[in-house]
Amino acid sequence: MKMVSFASGDGGGVGWLEDGEVVDLGRAHGIWMMTVDDHLWMPVADMMDAIAAEVSTPGILADVREFVVDHDLVEELLVEDFELLAPLPLPPRIIALGLNYAEHARETGKEPPEEPIFFAKASTAVIGPDAPVIVPQNVGRVDHEVELAVVLSLGGRDIPRAEANLCVFGYTVLNDVTARDMQSADMAAGRPWLLCKGMDTFAPMGPWLVTQDEMPDPLEVDLALRVNGETRQQGNTRDLIFDIPEIIHRLSQYVTLEPGDVIATGTPSGISPIRPGDVIEAEVEGIGVLQNPVVATQ
Asked: For the whole model, what pTM was predicted?
């Protein structure tokens, strides 16, 4: 399923795409619940609720969708006059990887790492499709970084590599916008990367989340990024130094992972500056295109 978070006149909610239209999952789930006797009532108001519902009753989201289609309820449950938000507008955490493609490491003047390089982006940096990336004054060069992002449904500690995929709810596109001059200064001084990576609007995410069952296994998908229609980045997740099961396994050795955590898996080579007036298109095969304009701080 292609799942979305949306805002509307009624306040918004969570839904899925059906032939390009958004179906209200919250309403659909409520109708479906009235037809079954062996489930406790569990409202689905946002993406975190949808994740919790799927964990509680595996396959429930597909069951709701099948029920809606089979009973010709799609048109009745369509959402009108909505705005797409990031799939998780305020995720519990965003944990990202640095230099997880060998060619990207080399273009920054470094050798591919022997251990994963983990860092955090602020959850408040998240914006959705078509929302502007705001470049503050006096930060110097700011770059794009297209990435495949993993959204977790299950957490825990010391997750074995063989069980890591059981923790994945789905995938989305994340643009790890980076204040590059600030990052270079931070690295030279041994400082963390929170500010250069976590400024407001520096984590565009979307346009939707694709559930794990609709993505290939093993996960080998193309990534691309265009600025004003010009291709700047191209890659494939087969070239990840640390693949998704390894990332989850290694990270969970030190950090208790939680449902809704977002893991950005790294960017391929081709990073370059973005400037006010640019339009960025970040694309991951099987998910879609995340588009955001770039503007300057007023």
From this structure: 0.95
Collapsing DSSP states into helix, strand and coil, what is residue 210? strand
Summarize pLDDT for 173-216 with one digit per residue, the tens. Answer: 999 999 999 999 998 999 999 999 999 999 999 999 999 999 98
**What is the secondary structure of 32-91 as a DSSP string?**
HHTT-SSS------SHHHHHHHHHHSTTHHHHHHHHHHHTT-TGGGB--S-EEE-SSSS-
3-state helix, strand, coil in the chain (%, to 5): 25, 35, 40
* 297 three-state secondary structure: coil
Rounded Cα–Cα distance for residues 166 and 253 (Å): 16
In sequence order, what are the residues at sequence separation of 6 or more whose Cβ sits closer than 8 angstroms to the Cβ of residue 235? 101, 103, 222, 223, 224, 267, 268, 269, 270
H or E element, residue 26: helix 25-33
pLDDT, tens digit (0-9, with 9 covering 90-100), for 210-250:
999 999 888 999 999 999 999 999 999 999 999 999 999 99
CB-based contact 7:85 (threshold 8 Å): yes
Tokens of residue 168, six digits: 């994945």
| Mean pLDDT over each residue of the chain, to the nearest integer | 94
- Give all domains of the chain, ordered by start, each with its CATH number: 2-85 (no CATH), 94-296 (3.90.850.10)
Phi, psi of 292 (to 5 degrees): -145, 135
Which residues 6+ apart lie within 8 Å of 228 measured at CB?
278, 279
